[in-house]
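Saturday, quiet lab. Running sequence design on the structure tokens for the scaffold JK sent over.
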């Protein structure tokens, strides 16, 4: 898990701003992209429903081995 610090800069004149790592910025942009996409959000909601109901897709042993290598 990442443990990067974010720096909030308050200015006496002008707008405040935030400094964060490039990696954190990339992750935030990806999250915003998903949240702004109705189709991706719908896929997540449907996936959560099947997961909680225990009816979701179960990867094969080979697929799990491949996933765990990443």
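Result came back. Writing it out in full:
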């Amino acid at each position: 898990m990442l443990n990067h610090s974010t720096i909030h800069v308050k200015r006496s004149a002008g707008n405040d701003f935030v400094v964060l790592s490039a990696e954190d910025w990339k992750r935030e942009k990806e999250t915003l992209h998903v949240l702004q996409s109705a189709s991706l959000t719908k896929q997540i909601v449907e996936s959560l429903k099947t997961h909680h109901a225990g009816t979701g897709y179960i990867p094969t042993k080979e697929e799990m081995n491949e996933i765990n290598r990443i």
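Notes for JK: The first helix runs from residue 22 to 35. The two ends are 15 Å apart (CA to CA). Ask whether to fix the surface positions before the next round.
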